[in-house]
Please model this.
Amino acid sequence: MVWFVSACASEQAKQAVGGTYDPFEAENRGTHQFNKDMDRWIVDPMSQGYGKSTSGGVRDAFGNFASNLALPNDIINNILQGELDSAVQNTGRFAMNTIIGLAGFFDPASDVNMPRVEADFGQTLHVWGAAEGPYVEMPFLGPSNSRDAVGVVVDIALNPFIVILQDPQQYVGIFAYILDAMGNRYEYDAVIQAVLYDSADSYAQARSIYLQNRRFDLGMSAEDLYSDPYSDDPYEDF
Amino acid sequence: MNRREFISAVSAISMVAIVPTGALALSDAQAKSLVEAAVKDINKVIGSGKSLSGKIKDFERIFVKYGDVAIIARSALGPDARSASKSQLNTYTKAFQGYMSRKYGRRFEEFVGGRIEVKTARKVKSFHEVKTTAYLQGEAPFAVNFLVSDKSGKPRFFDMVIEGISLRLTEKEEIGAMLDKRKGNIDLLTQDLKKAG
Model:
């Protein structure tokens, strides 16, 4: 798996760090249109229904519950990345929110400055040296890259709630995930509308925003990410 | 070279020597105080309780006062900026300013009850990065970084980067797509921008 990712990475190494490497653009655009149709006809109406029939407090509670269930996976990835402080913090957070936060519906851990330290297997692969690889838009899950797409599969396979616990618990996790996604879709409706439906090229916008944010989340340095507009076009032209 | 040319060449050189230009002249402290002033203004707008159109006007005022609109607009146009005439570029920049104000001024609606705090400033490459944190109700704090340069002649921000997402680069992508739709015609793009946002 890591060889597959590195093979893609050597292709991408030809591109500058921070550029856009999208050899599968034609297929990606097809998937993007599918995702947009799904959003317009199913996800958006459902999230509007969910949002209007619940209060912010209820949605936050379901969001907290879903985040809490994600912590064991965060902890595994913290350890794989050698981030032991984060692993300890996430473990404390999980214990506190599950016990005092009533199965995770409440989030007392954030009040005592123990925020979640998100980690996923795509990030772990990055820490291990795997480059991004080509940009990929996945059905339903949206923008990603070939390395992180592999990461998603591993995250699902390694999720303790699926591996260790048996049937009923794993469905709870999926319902919680869906409700959390609906909640987010409702809360961020204005911005999502602007990007997906008001822009001239929603595919390029989603790709650009995703790549920039993902690289930032992975802790790529300002030196890599920032460019200087004054040096591309000499200011003396004015 | 005649005498007049020689004199203006000499004065030009001495002007360059007297007037510091470029990033060397801009300090961390200056970059930080520009952003502090901008953020103070922004926080006031967020808490003002004005109507949407009022907020959009305020955003435009802040954009023009603290930002280098010209370089952001030009950068968004990309390589096609080189083939544009000065008047085309001016009309385009004006339209771009209005478009940005409407598009991002609207985002202020989501900031109600929130505030931005300036944290640190440091030199990065040939400009300065001023880090701030935005606190919105019910959300984890997020990073909003301003990139500041004085290459326009005065300290101005030329980019705002939210959780890694650069306003300038994202708009470059979008303006590029709009220009493609108009087959590279800058005048038609300018027309579209007057109505967009």
